[in-house]
Design brief:
Largest sheet: none
Mean pLDDT: 92
Structural class: mainly alpha
Number of helices: 6
Distance between the termini: 22 Å
Order of helices and strands: HHHHHH
Shape: globular
Length: 137
C-alpha cells in the first residue's frame, strides 16, 4: 500500500472514530433510558440501546487510537446495517421529511469495510502489535 493510501486510511479511521464517538456521547447525554425507550418504540429490544451506545462510545475511541481496528469496524458494519433495517429503511435513501435517510449509513459502512480489509496503518496501536509480531517471526 502506498504512503498516500496509508495516510488516507488513517484519516478515514480517525474520522469514523470521531463520528461514532460523537454519536455515543450524544446517546449518553440524552440518557440511556431515553435511548432504550426510543429503541423499544421502533420495535427493537430496548436493551440494545444501551449496547449500541457503549459500542459507539468505546468503539469510537478504539478507532481513533487504532485499537482492534478490524474488529471494531466490523462491529460498526453490523450496527449500521441494523440501523438501516430497523430505523431508516422506511424513510428511503434520502429521508422522507420525517426522519433521516440511510445515505450516510451506507457511506459509513463503506469506510468501515475499508478498515476491515485495509492493512494496519503506522499511526495506530494495532501497528505496535503487528510490528512486534512480524519481528518475532
Amino acid at each position: 500500500m502506498s504512503s498516500a493510501s496509508r495516510n488516507i486510511s488513517t484519516i478515514m479511521r480517525v474520522a469514523l472514530g470521531i463520528l461514532f464517538l460523537a454519536h455515543g456521547i450524544a446517546k449518553f447525554q440524552m440518557g440511556l433510558d431515553n435511548v432504550a425507550g426510543w429503541f423499544s418504540s421502533i420495535g427493537v429490544p430496548g436493551f440494545l440501546g444501551y449496547v449500541v451506545a457503549v459500542i459507539e462510545l468505546v468503539g469510537g475511541i478504539a478507532l481513533i487510537l487504532g485499537v482492534l481496528t478490524r474488529y471494531v469496524a466490523g462491529i460498526f458494519v453490523i450496527v449500521l446495517i441494523g440501523a438501516i433495517l430497523t430505523a431508516k429503511l422506511s424513510g428511503g435513501l434520502m429521508g422522507n421529511g420525517q426522519g433521516a435517510g440511510y445515505e450516510l449509513d451506507i457511506a459509513f459502512i463503506l469506510v468501515a469495510l475499508h478498515l476491515v480489509f485495509a492493512p494496519t496503518t503506522r499511526l495506530s496501536v494495532d501497528s505496535l502489535f503487528s510490528r512486534r509480531t512480524s519481528t518475532e517471526q
